[in-house]
# Entry
Amino acid sequence: MFNDLFLRTCRLEETERTPVWLMRQAGRYMKEYWGIRSKHSFLEMCKTPEIAARVTMQPIDTFGFDAAILFSDILIPVEAMGVDLEFVEGRGPVLTTKIEDITDINRLVVPDPEEDLPFVLDAIRLLRKRLNVPLIGFSGAPFTLASYIIEGGGSRNYLKAKSMMYNEPRLWKSLMEKIADTVTDYLNAQIDAGAQAVQVFDSWVGCLSPEDYKQFVQPYTKQVFDGLKGDVPRIHFGTGSAMLLEHMRNAGGDVIGCDWRIGLDDAWTRIGYDHGIQGNLDPILLHATPEVLVERIRGVLDKAGGRPGHVFNLGHGILPTTPVENVKVLVDAVKKYSLK
# Structure
């Protein structure tokens, strides 16, 4: 039997309970993941369809989530654009292609997903044959990907990216347009390959003021959402984005993800009940005692008020140090206490 609870919820249908999945649910907190990771680099895992499919399946088989999210990384399409990318142990992604003038941007390409990213699409096709829950495809949002490219990796203050925004708006526009085209094509290719929903991750957007978001980011994110094909649910998630929720809604998405820095009830009121909402337990609560964890899970569910359209998730990705037994507690508690 195919479990379509997640899809029905995203479409604001009345459902028997709240669906649950977690960002980064396939990954480093599971020993099964490390059994594979010990033999392969991270990029090898992302670029080998059979391995990516196996890792995607691991939390579904273990915990019974209501949706699977493809095991990959938001920077995979950036590498296909022509940006040098390496994952350094203990440091994370390192991007060494400099973006200093229009010549550097002109060297970047909008990749053809079928030609340049076939491993992602092949993993999706494999998973559709194996899963009994919906498969979520994803990409980073234009702002987050542009920031990674300009900064060369992680950043505390986004000095280089925001300086380009303010001081070289034409250069910023050229880069964002190229990234928006890339993200749109990439997500559409995932949909064509069989992804039943897609999520756009704007992981770094919380560094922006509402004014800057509207001027420098919203047009390009909206371009992506407006360009998506078919009727698959579209999820729009940002971290630290409590002050941006209305603007993110206007940029696009059927379901708006929110982090734990705002109450789910307040967030949904601002987004509007004509949209679904996803979230929003603090990931650190998975390190709490089961009693505290369950209490906070019930708190999130109470704030949703039993309305159709709530997808239970964390307010950001699951941490590598998360106790596996608490993930089981979370899934069981959501299923138990959200029954209608």
Notes: The beta strands are 68-69, 85-88, 92-95, 135-140, 197-202, 234-238, 255-257, 276-281, 310-314. The mean pLDDT is 97.
